[in-house]
Design brief:
Strand content: 15-25%
CATH superfamily: Creatinase/methionine aminopeptidase superfamily
Oligomer: single chain
Distance between the termini: 36 Å
CATH class: Alpha Beta
Shape: globular
Strand order of the largest sheet: 7-6-8-13-14
Number of helices: 5
Order of helices and strands: HHEEEEHHEEEEEEEEEEH
Number of domains: 1
Bound molecules: 2-amino-4-trifluoromethylsulfanyl-butyric acid, cobalt (II) ion
CATH topology: Creatine Amidinohydrolase
Structural class: alpha+beta
Length: 279
């Protein structure tokens, strides 16, 4: 069984510290959102992330993690996750998931957003925009479940319920092997945060938890393989994939989406949830 004693619970002051590292990640996202246009390489985007991290006197938590060679993971089109930035040139209409992290004063930040580039074939781009908005919505449903639920497993149940509710003609497949996680003094901590329904209740949601909620969806089948670089995960069928991730704190007053500059106010308003910033 899950052992909730292993979960690192943060004080309100520690959550405020984690807000700072998550805002470094939000700053990387803003820089990459502006810079990601057709013609730039994923390696150039990674260099921008490195400069943003340095400008905050933060450190990369991706670089060197199990010998990972870069500061970000940039996963384009049929890359599911852990794309290593390099010589790949972004093309019009690409779907680009940019997973970024930073560590500041010992506290880890980790979040991912997706941009669909302008141009390309309309039908292809529109299908990718739909995949990105479904994945983003799945993430917000998970965050809403963290605010309203009782168990960590309520998050994956809410994500699964949302995906199952979609018209089969557009319904993506949940890539079940990649899951969210606790975060704090390390990037990956207890508890596991599944993106699908489970009958195991697992640990209760408790004040002081900080979780990364990060659904990864495939347009067609979730079946994947890992390339010889031992990182890059691609779909078997060549279909597109998409990843969104926020880092969310739960405290006695409610939830605070640490990696969203507005604390999650806009994303959670449609669920009738008032966010509870501690600043
Ligand atoms: N950011 C990923 C996650 O969401 C982990 C990145 S793995 C690394 O859990 F090696 F790139 F750091
Ligand atoms: Co993560």
């Amino acid at each position: 069984m899950f052992n909730s004693n292993k979960i690192e619970l943060k004080t309100n002051d520690q959550i405020r510290q984690m807000r700072k590292s998550a805002l470094v990640v939000a700053d990387i996202h803003k820089a990459l959102d502006d810079a990601a246009v057709p013609g730039i390489t994923t390696g150039e985007l990674d260099d921008i992330a490195r400069d943003v991290i340095a400008s905050h006197d933060a450190k990369s938590n991706f670089y060197g993690y199990y010998d990972y060679p870069r500061q970000t993971c940039i996963s384009v089109n049929s890359t599911v996750v852990h794309g290593i930035p390099g010589a790949e040139v972004l093309q019009p209409g690409d779907i680009v998931s940019m997973d970024c992290g930073a560590v500041l004063n010992g506290w880890h930040g980790d979040a991912c957003f997706t941009k669909v580039l302008p141009g390309g074939e309309n039908a292809v781009r529109e299908r990718r925009e739909q995949l990105s908005s479904i994945t983003k919505e799945a993430m917000w449903r998970g965050i809403a479940a963290m605010a309203k639920g009782k168990y960590v497993s309520d998050i994956g149940n809410a994500i699964d319920d949302y995906i199952v509710s979609l018209d089969p003609a557009i319904r993506p497949d949940i890539v079940e092997d990649f899951i969210g996680h606790g975060i704090g003094t390390k990037m990956h901590m207890e508890p596991d945060v599944l993106n699908f329904r489970t009958s195991r209740k697992g640990p209760k949601l408790r004040p002081g938890m900080v979780l990364c909620i990060e659904p990864i969806l495939a347009q067609k089948s979730q079946a994947y393989r890992t390339l010889d670089d031992e990182w890059t995960v691609v779909t078997q069928d060549g279909g597109d994939a998409c990843h969104w991730e926020h880092q969310v704190a739960l405290h006695a007053g409610g939830v605070w989406v640490l990696s969203a500059p507005d604390g999650g106010a806009v994303g959670l308003a449609k669920y009738g949830i008032d966010v509870a910033p501690l600043d």
